[in-house]
Design brief:
Layout lengths: L1 E7 L2 E6 L9 E10 L2 H7 L10 E2 L3 E9 L11 E4 L2 E2 L5 H4 L10 E2 L12 E5 L3 E3 L6 H4 L2 H12 L9 E4 L3 H12 L5 E4 L3 H9 L4 E3 L6 H8 L5 E6 L4 H10 E9 L11 H6 L3 E4 L5 H12 L9 E6 L3 H10 L6 E5 L2
Parallel strand pairs: 11-12, 11-14, 12-13, 14-15, 15-16, 17-18
Antiparallel strand pairs: 1-2, 1-4, 3-5, 3-9, 3-18, 5-6, 6-10, 7-8
């Protein structure tokens, strides 16, 4: 079979690799669509240490079951699935609490040395597969994983119904946080980004207001959009010092910030602002199985307005070109999805 193999920083090749066969309790999934995550691009550049060559990346994927291993009961060849790309032990303290993303023995497909879904096929545990309805496109289903990342972050804020929310960053995670917020009944959702094209996508996906922080006074703009109170909640989906600082300044007294961005290990922020205004700050990592299940329900029910997020679909054979482009000249691309016929 063919796979897109990472060979080291700025090195990738679409090449022949050994075929895969499902073990007991596994299913073989013929990959139909797999999104390129920002973490994949950072891995391609050799910036994170989270990709160990040679390996195939890819953890945002959907496909069709082609073979099942012994003991598999829930799926059969021909079934359409989206895959929770975390193989968890199910026995540790974190798994016992349903926090599978924090399992100390987890294996993440497409991360470190574990091969992922930038390939013709992949074998995954039956427990990680979720059925897709026939009318759901594989491209849209490939968004389930980043959608779950966004939903997990939003859920840290508690009940968002009727709340004014600022989303910092109109990339994949920020835009899917927007969708999560709208589906959970948030009041006014404001999306901030310096890219006007991305702000247009945010509008198409249901943003009530958009703001470019390089135009006018950011704090005054947010105050004007929230009746002078500031945002109840700020979702930071960039991971830079300036956007973290902007999110904090835009919050009302006692407001809540959720940090989803994971771009730099160290940033500077105004601690006094957090302390004296009694702001709450939560970090958010990956997603639970319940987050993933909720997103699947939304996608299968046709409730999620996410089509505008996919900027480009391209054959897996063109993956080297699109990794290079996203790494060095992304222009207005947000989500690129690689496909197998």
């Amino acid at each position: 079979m063919k796979a897109l193999v990472y060979l080291g920083p700025n090195q990738m090749e679409y090449k022949d690799v050994a075929d895969v066969t499902p073990k007991a309790d596994e299913v073989k999934v013929d990959v139909k669509s797999c999104g390129i995550c920002g973490s994949d691009v950072h891995g391609y550049l050799g910036l994170t240490g989270r990709r160990t060559e040679p390996m195939a990346m890819g953890h945002e994927f959907s496909g069709q079951v082609s073979e099942v291993g012994g003991g598999v009961k829930s799926f059969k060849p021909g079934d359409r699935v989206a895959v929770y790309p975390v193989d968890f032990c199910g026995e540790c303290d974190m798994c016992g609490q349903g926090q599978y993303q924090l399992c100390k023995d987890k294996r993440q497909f497409g991360v470190l040395e574990v091969d992922g879904a930038f390939a013709d096929s992949i074998c995954v545990p039956e427990k990680c597969c979720f059925p897709l309805k026939e009318d759901v496109s594989f491209d849209i289903a490939s968004l389930v994983e980043p959608f779950a990342v966004a939903l997990h972050g939003v859920r840290h804020a508690g009940d968002v119904a009727g709340k004014n929310v600022l989303v910092e960053g109109a990339g994949t995670i920020g835009l899917l946080a927007l969708s999560s917020l709208k589906l959970l009944g948030a009041g006014k959702v404001i999306v901030s980004d310096i890219n006007e094209t991305r702000l247009g996508v945010a509008k198409a996906m249901g943003a009530d207001e958009t703001v470019n922080p390089t135009v006018g006074d950011f704090e005054q703009n947010i105050a004007g959009m929230t009746g002078g109170k500031g945002a109840d909640i700020a979702i930071e989906a960039v991971g830079s010092a300036i956007t973290v600082q902007q999110a904090s300044k835009a919050l009302r007294f006692g407001g809540t910030a959720i940090w989803l961005g994971n771009n730099k290990p160290m940033i500077e922020m105004n601690m006094q602002e957090v302390v004296t205004r009694e702001q709450k700050v939560y970090g958010s990592f990956l997603y639970t199985l319940d987050d993933f299940r909720q997103v699947i329900e939304w996608i299968n029910a046709g409730k999620a307005n996410v089509d505008a997020l996919v900027s480009k679909t391209a054959p897996m054979s063109e993956g080297v070109f699109y990794f290079e482009k996203l790494a060095h000249d992304p222009e207005d691309l947000i989500k690129v999805v690689l496909t197998n016929e």
